[in-house]
Amino acid sequence: ALLDLSGVHQVEGTWKGSITLPCTYVPSEGFTEQTLSWHVERDSTTSTVLRRDDSGDHILLSKFRDRVSVPKHSPGNVSLLIENLEMPDSGHYTCQVIWRSTNNSLIIREVTTTVKVVKVAATKPSIRAGELGLTVPAGASTSLTCEASGSPPISYRWFRSTLQGEPQFLSREAKLAWDRLQPSDSGTYFCEAANK
Q: Which PROSITE patterns match (predicted)?
């Protein structure tokens, strides 16, 4: 089976996640990859997603710009990576490779994969409580980490309680760290996690 493309029949991806549509072959002497193209068919219309030729990779569908790519330096691997999946990305994707042989004849092979994009059930973030009443010597380093589970993306905000009542905003990272603790760092800290 010279220059056969191998792929898979179906790939399931999660909304906002990323997936790879496998398309590989064993490079063979005397055959040069002329063009590679990925097409998508949905609602009985076919469009070209990406085309690779001597002048490079071209993404022809604007809705896929900055979201699709094919490995650059691995001969025989022309799998398509789709990132930040949208619901309308579901459809039938065909990988087509055309090789030119030394006697200038062309060989064309293609393989089709069905993509199904599913939504994960949305869940509110829930935070695992850290230990209360942490006592650390002055001059030491320490950190507080906010861990939340739930539907991504999750954003974090750290605050410090103040006597005035209005908490002081500190950071948007999940982890709050101190290199050298001062007595003035004593206090009550809390974290807020949010998603859509």
A: IG_LIKE (PS50835)
